[in-house]
Specification:
729 residues; mainly alpha; 26 helices; transmembrane helix; transmembrane; cholesterol binding; glycoprotein; signal
Length: 729
């Protein structure tokens, strides 16, 4: 029972597999191609709604009966060991009338042997049943009461054990038969329904391919929107990029220019201080000279007076009381001041502020100047979208999909009668199998009841040789079971053989050769199939292609374009080359210019001021002479030191007149120091600051001014060029 039901399962499913060959192939063919982004930096996200049309795969759920199914397949491999009968199939498909019975018998030899066994069983069982009935009518086959012997009890127990074991085996088998029969019915219904459903889905797939092409073309909207979005902020982004990349160079030039303007202002200030201070010091020296000479003569005369006690020690310092530095000897800076007269004629601070403001306004200026260019780019993009749409409008896909769609429609229409027949056969098989399995259960019930009544009757009677009604009833139940077995077992054998023959041939002829791909070789061999079954032609495959290669490509994930080799008729790569649609766009980008205006960091009058500053002769002044004179004090002898010495001598004098004169001379020296010498020393200190600044600046003045002018000119020249380069990038 179980093998027969399993073969019924194989028969129905194998019949569906033959029709699903085309289904699976076209399902794989209809899979869309995926586009990969050319740049990993910017990924555009596309949706593929066309891929939502799916055909769910049907799979048998593994169960505890899988070992039984494996046993059946091994049994079929043992019965049918012949390879695919290509010659027999070619003759049967092209000229059915010329098929020889001997060829069929030779290929089906294993099933012929099984048929002989089934026929023998079918004949032998009813004959044996009739013989048994005849013997029973003559009371020669059991039914007589035997004398009780010890051996009779052993025989009864042996028969009871064998009958119980046999009934148990039959019970397990009929249970497997019920389960497998129900599973066949449960799997057959969705399998049969999947055939037309799959064919309709595939036709829908092919019908939707033009819409899929249009959908792919519509996906140009994704990059178009991205480009429109980018163009919307492009001008300001370009301006910010130009500002960001050039600000270091520009700010450095402006800072350098500000330093030179500061040098000009500061140098002019220190030159004026240098000129005024040196003249003031020369005039002050001329005024100090007679007073200092008079003071020296009086102090020397006083110290040389014999009445002056211990005055000889200070006499030497008094004699050295004379002027020191002579600033009338230092070079004049009047020519330099005359050269710088009227400078600066330009407002460097305002000039730098304007240059800084002009450079910082580049982002806003880019938005204004690029508005028309952005508008032209959007127009080019709209024209590009129209060119892309022409791909879908001129795509000759229906010429290639119509034959396959028609083949699927014919396959669906022709499969309907066969599917109905298969469904009807399956219904009859299930009814017959259920009835026969129920009869087997009835036989098992009779056997069980008979054995139970027999054992119960033997246990209750006192004399084992006595006749007992319960034992008689048990014997009748056993006889009923035997009669039912003789009447219906041959029908069950016929049902098992029928499913075995159909399912086994489908398994060995179709399924096994499908797995080892022999069936593909048979289909692809010219002349094996009649013209009406030429799948390659119906699928519009090229002459150099076949179903085997198409199926392998589909199974490996290839798309419809590769499998049907449409590139030989329609060069898709040529139609999808981006330069074909973006040439105008790229050309406009290549010619992209936007006049951002001149960024003037230094006007002509400012340049002239710096050039005049560099030519003024500031670096030709001998600042060393100033520094040498400043090393000399205003007075060679320190007036405060000499005054303190005179005050010390005053305290040592015995002569009041001398002491008074010493005190008067000390006060005069202090007055001269505070009123004249100290102010000159302050002027010398001020002069030193100016000399120090100018001496540091002068050696590098011309080079710094030259570098500043060159840098400023270079930045002004490079700004527009680099701005255009950055803009194109």
């Amino acid at each position: 029972g179980a093998p027969g039901s399993q073969l019924a399962t194989g028969a129905m499913r194998a019949a569906g597999l033959l029709l699903l060959l085309l289904v699976w192939a076209l399902l794989q063919l209809a899979a869309g191609q995926q586009c990969q982004p050319s740049s990993p930096g910017a990924v555009l996200r596309f949706t593929d709604r066309h891929a939502e049309i799916r055909v769910p795969a049907l799979h048998r759920v593994p169960s505890s009966l899988d070992p039984l199914y494996g046993l059946v397949r091994r049994c079929l491999d043992l019965i049918q060991q012949n390879p695919l009968p290509t010659e027999l199939l070619r003759t049967a498909l092209n000229d059915p009338g010329s098929v020889q019975t001997s060829q069929v018998v030779q290929y089906e030899l294993g099933y012929v042997v099984c048929a002989a066994v089934a026929l023998l069983f079918t004949v032998a069982v009813p004959v044996a049943g009739m013989c048994f009935c005849y013997c029973r009518s003559r009371r020669r086959c059991g039914g007589r009461l035997r004398a009780h012997r010890r051996s009779l009890g052993c025989r009864r127990r042996c028969l009871l054990t064998c009958l119980s074991f046999t009934s148990l085996v039959i019970l397990v088998s009929v249970t497997c038969a019920f389960v497998t029969s129900q599973r066949v019915r449960g799997q057959m219904e969705p399998g049969l329904g999947a055939v037309p459903s799959t064919l309709r889905t595939l036709r829908q797939h092919l019908a939707n391919v033009p819409q899929g092409v249009q959908m792919v073309v519509d996906k140009f909207e994704v990059p178009r929107k991205q480009i429109i979005s980018d163009l919307g902020g492009l001008s300001r982004s370009v301006g910010l990029s130009i500002h960001s990349q050039l600000k270091a160079m520009t700010y450095a030039a402006l800072a350098d220019l500000q330093d030179r303007a500061g040098d000009l202002q500061t140098s002019l200030h220190h030159l004026q201080i240098l000129h005024r201070t040196s003249r003031a010091l020369a005039a002050a020296r001329a005024e100090l000279e007679p007073a200092l000479r008079e003071r020296r003569s009086r102090v020397v005369a006083l110290l040389d007076d014999p009445r002056c006690t211990s005055c000889a020690s200070v006499l030497g310092r008094a004699q050295g009381l004379q002027l020191g530095a002579d600033y009338a000897k230092v070079p004049s800076v009047e020519k330099v001041l005359e050269a710088l007269a009227g400078l600066p004629r330009s407002d460097f601070a305002e000039m730098i502020r304007q240059g800084n403001g002009t450079f910082n306004s580049i982002p806003e200026l880019a938005v204004e100047r690029m508005a028309q260019v952005i508008q032209d780019l959007r127009g080019d993009l709209a024209r590009t979208a129209g060119k892309v749409q022409s791909i879908a409008d001129g795509f000759p896909l229906p010429d290639y999909t119509r034959p396959a769609s028609e083949a699927l429609l014919k396959a669906e229409e022709r499969s309907q009668p066969y599917l109905r027949e298969v469904e009807r056969f399956e219904r009859y098989r299930w009814i017959a199998g259920t009835v026969l399995c129920s009869i087997i259960l009835l036989i098992l019930a009779c056997n069980g009841t008979g054995m139970a009544l027999g054992v119960y009757g033997l246990a209750k009677r006192e004399d084992p040789s006595d006749y007992e009604c319960r034992g008689e009833a048990g014997a009748k139940f056993l006889l009923v079971g035997v009669g039912l077995a003789f009447l219906f077992s041959w029908l069950l054998i016929l049902l098992v053989f029928a499913t075995f023959l159909v399912g086994g041939n489908i398994q060995t002829l179709v399924c096994r050769n499908w797995v080892n791909q022999e069936i593909y070789k048979f289909i692809d061999t010219p002349g094996n199939l009649p013209p009406s079954m030429n799948l390659s032609r119906q699928l519009n495959l090229r002459r150099d292609s076949n179903l085997s290669s198409a199926y392998r490509e589909c199974k490996s994930g290839a798309g419809l374009w590769e499998v049907l080799q449409l590139h030989s008729s329609y060069d898709l790569d040529e139609h999808l080359k981006p330069p074909k649609y973006t040439a105008d766009f790229q050309k406009r980008l290549g010619d992209f210019t936007a006049d951002l205006g001149d960024v003037r960091l230094l006007r002509s009058e400012g340049r002239q001021d710096l050039e005049t500053f560099a030519r003024s002769g500031l670096d030709e002044v001998d600042y060393g002479s100033f520094q040498e004179e400043m090393k000399n004090p205003v007075v060679q002898t320190s007036l405060p030191g000499l005054a303190r010495n005179l005050e010390g001598l005053q305290k040592m004098q015995r002569n009041g007149t001398v002491a008074g004169r010493l005190a008067a001379e000390a006060r005069a020296l202090w007055h001269l120091q505070n009123s004249t010498v100290q102010s000159q020393e302050a002027l010398v200190a001020k002069l030193g600051e100016s000399v120090q600044f100018l001496s540091r600046l002068a050696p590098h003045l011309k080079e710094r001014v030259r570098r500043t002018l060159a840098t400023t000119a270079s930045v002004e020249a490079r700004l527009p060029l680099q701005a255009q380069q950055i803009l194109r990038q």
